[in-house]
Amino acid sequence: MGRLSLHTDKKLLHTGVTLARKKGLSGFTVRELCAKSNVNLGMFHYYFKTKQRFDQEVLRLIYEQMMQDIRIETSPRATARKNTESILTSIYAFVRQNRVLLSALAADVLGGDKNTLKFIVKHFTEHVSLLLRELRRGELTPQAAAMPIGSLAITLVLPVALPQLFSGTLERLGKNLLPPQAQGVISAVWNEENTEKRISLLLKAAFGEEK
Question: Is residue 207 within 8 Å of residue 141, measured between CB atoms?
Fold first, then answer.
């Protein structure tokens, strides 16, 4: 099998990740994928059978890359605050790199795609579990401790992720949707420096001043 494949499946997945990040999963066809991968169409069906199954493998691969970053950057010996910072930073990097793909997935879910929603809920929750674990073991401020732990997690993640999702939507649909003045103002919101400041403020609200 290894000699037969010549890593053809990995080549297709690598190309699929690149295309998905530029166009979203529905933005490219199997023929386009095979042409850019220099792979015979029959080999795609041999390994993946359907576009839906291939799309799911692409999503798993992209998600696992984020989880690898989180596992590397977090440690049981680190404080809950430090691990939370690492998780939020990894989430930001993940959403920034995949903003077009994620905005397209969000549009699919909001449009009623139940299969996509079920797949995401089933397979892409490990980072949520890790974040909840750190919040439970951390010494929270009174305001943060008064919130349900799930609500606190959402409060921390949304300001990090939503600006990049909005950026991805503009890239996917056309940046000319906004006037030039508005584009400049909004781009300042989601740039890396301001995101670091936003994460710092969120950590202060959740854990207080850093000791």
Answer: yes
**Is pLDDT at 105 greater than 60 in this prediction?**
yes
**Is the predicted pLDDT of residue 177 greater than 80, yes or no?**
no
Task: State mean pLDDT over 1-30.
Answer: 84
- The Cα 154–Cα 134 span in angstroms is 14
Number of H helices, E strands in the chain: 13, 0
What is the full DSSP assignment across 73-139? Answer: H--TTS-HHHHHHHHHHHHHHHHHHTHHHHHHHHHHHHTT-HHHHHHHHHHS-HHHHHHHHHHHHS-
Choosing from 49, 64, 81, the residue where a domain stops is: 49
What does pTM read for this prediction?
0.87
Range of the domain at 171: 52-207
Secondary structure class of 29 (helix, strand, coil): coil
> What CATH number does residue 10 fall under?
1.10.10.60
Shared domain check, 33 and 13:
yes
| DSSP helix/strand/coil, 65 | helix
